[in-house]
Amino acid sequence: MGGVNQRQAVLGILRDAASPVSTAECAAKFSQAVGLGNEAEIVDQVSRKLPS
């Protein structure tokens, strides 16, 4: 994830959302966007690092 602008990725997810998204939903989309996959453990780790 070092080469990915994480803030820009999250802002893009929020901007493109049709409705408000939860931290977990944002984490799942972020994980997919940066190529981490969507396994529950990865999404859980990412959601703990995103600001709520």
Question: Would you mind describing this structure in some detail?
Answer:
The protein has 52 residues and is an all-alpha fold. Helices cover 62% and strands 0% of the residues. It has 3 helices and no strands. Helix 1 packs across helix 2 (23-33) and helix 2 (23-33) packs across helix 3. The model has no long low-confidence stretch (mean pLDDT 80).
Radius of gyration based on Cα positions: 10 Å
Helical segment tally? Answer: 3
* Unreliable stretches covering 5 or more consecutive residues: none
Major β-sheet profile: none
Distance between the termini: 20 Å
State the share of residues found in helices, binned by percent: 55-70%
Compute the number of strand runs: 0
Structural class: mainly alpha
User: Which sequence of SSEs, written as H and E, runs from N to C?
Assistant: HHH
Q: Which geometry do the CA atoms define?
A: globular
Average pLDDT across residues?
80
Short description:
This protein is mostly helical and 52 residues long.
Keyword list:
single chain, 52 residues, 3 helices, mainly alpha
